[in-house]
Amino acid sequence: MKWLLPLFLLSTTVTAQVQRSNIPSTERKGIIADQFIYETAAFPECHASTIVETPKGLVAAWFGGTKEGYKDVNIYTSIYRKGKWSAPALAADGFINDSTRYACYNPVLFLAANNELLLFYKIGPYVQGWTGWMKRSSDFGKTWSKSEALPDGILGPIRNQPYLADGLLICPSSTEKGGWKVHFEFTPDNGKVWSKGPDLNDAKPITGIQPAILRHDAKTLQALCRSQNRTINETWSYDNGRTWSALAQTEMPNNNSGIDAITLKDGRHLLVYNNVKPPASEKEGWGGRSPLNVAISKDGKIWEPYAILENEPGAEFSYPFVIQTKDGKIHITYTWKRKKIKHVILTAPQPTAGPAKI
Questions:
Q1: Which CATH number fits the domain that encloses residue 341?
Q2: How is the beta sheet containing 163-165 ordered, strand by strand?
């Protein structure tokens, strides 16, 4: 995968400017609005948001509590209508039974073809030991069913949205126990019956978690992943997501933090990520979580800068989640300093000569 050098140089230059002033307006092109989903909440910290469009408005979810990993960390939701978000509402907690409670992690919302809204999430004492759970809503997020434990070994979509291909819901997943490894899980009936594909890497040395799926043509999919290799890593499928290639590095930087990517209605691809290249001496690839950038690609290989959402040295802007709604607008939610969830609306970039609509 090629990486346009100006993308990195642009962010480096802008960082110096932002230390003295706000992000230049030229780098916030396309941004219609940005707002916090809530101003105050019963929990001090939050992280890992997700957003989905329903016939009754947008719905967002995230986890919040004292601190990531604490037992009081629950899943909260909010509904967006007429330009305003509702107050955070408790959607799921970490009670395994009457006496055992763990933290909740990484919700993922998905609207099924039958208009059932699915909420996937994880529960566990720590990431390596978490288990997969889900809830269902028949009223687009107002109320939720009882929690359902996923089958042993099934985690559901780890952080990024599932992809429906020929009636099969493809859930991008991963594990962190014994090294970071990527795999895919499949359900033909919205989470009742499951199957699981093999690991696509052995984490020696190529690592990956949290895949995000892109569509290239009728049979070709690409998934981009967070890694500990200082790069975004990728895998490809040429049979509509049933099987995938071995995980491999790209030239795009990754700071050991979450990314998200979607295929737009015109066939181009949009990536939201921290444009940070950690030093080679950083063994696990950790880097700062600012700035937060948006990039565009025609082929999933060469990425061009589109916008900078945040840029404050030393601050955290992380774990973006992105969708394109039916009206063509792009909606991104992300963690803002672990204190709030930010919602940004962008216009889709003007199309240039490139792939035909999918």
A1: 2.120.10.10
A2: 163-165, 168-175, 181-187, 195-196
Structural domain contains residue 220: yes
Name the residue among 133, 111, 131 with its Cα closest to residue 121. 133
Q: Look up residue 271 and give its two tokens.
A: 């990536």
Asked whether 42 and 35 are in contact (CB, 8 A), the reply is: no
> Where in the sequence is the domain holding 323, given as residue range(s)?
5-346
d(CA 216, CA 212): 13
User: pTM (2 decimals)?
Assistant: 0.92
Number of domains in the chain: 1
Reported as a single tens digit per residue, the pLDDT across 60-88 is 999 999 999 999 999 999 999 999 999 99
Which letter does DSSP use for residue 303 in this model? -
Which residues make beta-bridge pairs with 330? 324, 346
What HEC string does 65-87 produce? ECCCCCCCCEEEEEEEECCEECC
Do residues 297 and 288 lie in contact, with contact meaning Cβ atoms separated by under 8 Å? no
Q: What are phi and psi of 211, to 5 degrees?
A: -70, 150
